[in-house]
Amino acid sequence: MRKSLLVVVAIAGVLIGAGSFLYARNATPVVPPLATTEAAAAGTPWVVKLHAQWCPVCMLTKGMWSQIEQTYAGRVRLAVFDFTTDETAAASRAEAERLGLGYVFDEAAYATGTILVLDGRSGRIAAWLNGSRDFADYRAAIDSALAASR
Length: 150
Description:
Elements: H1 2-25, H2 36-40, E1 46-51, H3 56-60, H4 62-72, E2 77-82, H5 86-98, H6 102-108, E3 114-118, E4 125-130, H7 135-148
Parallel strand pairs: 1-2
Antiparallel strand pairs: 1-3, 3-4
Helix pairs in contact: 5-6
């Protein structure tokens, strides 16, 4: 009995340690801030990441966001809404309102692990991608939004 208890405690310790390690490595991405006037301008599509440090899908797709940033920086407007805590969610709501994306925040709030592509003209959600680890899925959605904005 004692041996079994020690094994369970050891396994729990390993799992907690691994979870803490992954949590610490899943920091919320930071994107360059946009001026309110730039955010309000029609035409350029938005790519919005819904993130939480505790989200397993966010952990798995972290590389996709980095690839999106590298590939599309300067061609789309990027935003990250953080739902890790109540405080970060409130700050993200305020930022969404400032950027004119309050309606997106309301529609998609807490759907962490999701990347939204918004049409640059109408502002409507053109693509809702959750958990894909294939960059081609993101590329197709973003390229389609860019083509529609021309």
